[in-house]
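Reopening this ticket.

The earlier resolution said the output was attached, but the attachment link was broken on my side. Pasting everything inline this time so it's all in one place.
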Amino acid sequence: MRTVRGITALFAGAALGAGLVAAPAQAAVTNDTTRANTLTAMHGEAFANASYLAYGAEAGRNGHDDIAALYAATADTELNEHFTEEAVLIDFVGTDVANLRTSIAGEWHEATVVYPGYARQARRDR
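Inline output:
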C-alpha cells in the first residue's frame, strides 16, 4: 500500500508540475459526452502511467534495467503526451483557485467517503 501511495504522490506531483502545454488554436471541447469520454481516457492514461512506473520499479529491483527504462519511457509518454494533450482539449486545468478547490474537494471525498467505505467493505469481506 505504501508503494501505491508513493506512486500516486509521484503521479500527482508530475501532473501538477507538467506545465500543461498551451491550448491549441481551436476551441476546447464543450460537448458533455465528448468531455466525459475524454476524462475517461485521461483516467486510463493516468492509470497506465502509474502502472508502468510500478512495473518499471519492479523490473529495476530485479536487475532488469533495460526493461525498467522501457517502462519509464512509456510512462512518460502516457503522462506527458497522451494525458497532457487530452487535458488541453477540454481545458482541464483552471485557475489556481479553482484547481485548489477541486484538489481539496477530491482529497476530502477520498479521505471521508471513499476509503472509509472500502475499509468497511474489506472488514466485512475479512
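Reporter confirms the inline version is readable. Residues 1-16, 18-24 have pLDDT under 50 and may be disordered. The radius of gyration is 17 Å.
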